[in-house]
């Protein structure tokens, strides 16, 4: 990468960081929505850059907490909005796992008819709010590389060493 491009990328990331939405939640996680649309891979990179990870959702409570967080953010639209979340089925078609921790997706909140792997090209997970289509914080699989959208980062779980120190 040339130094000019590298500088530009740094500036974009810094700019995005200055515009993140942050709030503690009932799940004990902090969530953020950087002010930049990206494909799923870049979304994951940007969360990492901030010391966070793409959001993982393993219970109804967490799905509700994410929904509440988005609703308070300026990225929410009551008409339609959607965000990348941290799961995919890139390793094995039809088997979704949470990329940040490698765990299989057990609790799931798919929109009816999803995941449909449309055209055999959809492998990354998004959360969708589009009430006119009966989608209220339900999940869809979409195209990892070519779809650009906002995304939700969460704080990383604290590791054992930090737990002991705490
Ligand atoms: Ca797929
Ligand atoms: Ca789909």
From TrEMBL:
The keyword Signal applies. Gene3D superfamilies: Mannose-Binding Protein A, subunit A. Keywords: Signal. It comes from the Eukaryota. Residues 26-150 form the C-type lectin domain. This is C-type lectin domain-containing protein. The lineage of its organism: Eukaryota, Metazoa, Ecdysozoa, Arthropoda, Hexapoda. SMART domains: CLECT (SM00034). Pfam families: Lectin_C (PF00059). PANTHER family: MANNOSE, PHOSPHOLIPASE, LECTIN RECEPTOR RELATED (PTHR22803). Residues 1-22 form the signal peptide.
């Amino acid at each position: 990468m040339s130094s000019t491009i590298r500088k530009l990328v740094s500036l974009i990331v810094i700019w995005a960081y200055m515009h993140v939405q942050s709030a503690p939640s009932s799940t004990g996680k902090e969530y953020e929505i950087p002010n930049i649309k990206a494909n799923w891979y870049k979304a994951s990179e940007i969360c990492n850059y901030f010391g966070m990870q793409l959001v993982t959702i393993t219970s109804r409570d967490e799905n509700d907490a994410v929904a509440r967080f988005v609703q308070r953010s300026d990225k929410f639209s009551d008409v339609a909005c959607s965000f990348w979340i941290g799961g995919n089925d890139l390793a094995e078609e039809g088997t979704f796992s949470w990329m940040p921790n490698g765990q299989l997706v057990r609790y799931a909140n798919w929109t009816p008819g999803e995941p449909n792997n449309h055209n055999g090209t959809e492998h990354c997970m998004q959360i969708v709010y589009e009430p006119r289509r009966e989608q209220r914080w339900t999940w869809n699989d979409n195209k990892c590389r070519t779809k650009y959208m906002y995304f939700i980062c969460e704080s990383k779980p604290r590791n054992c060493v930090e737990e002991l120190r705490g």
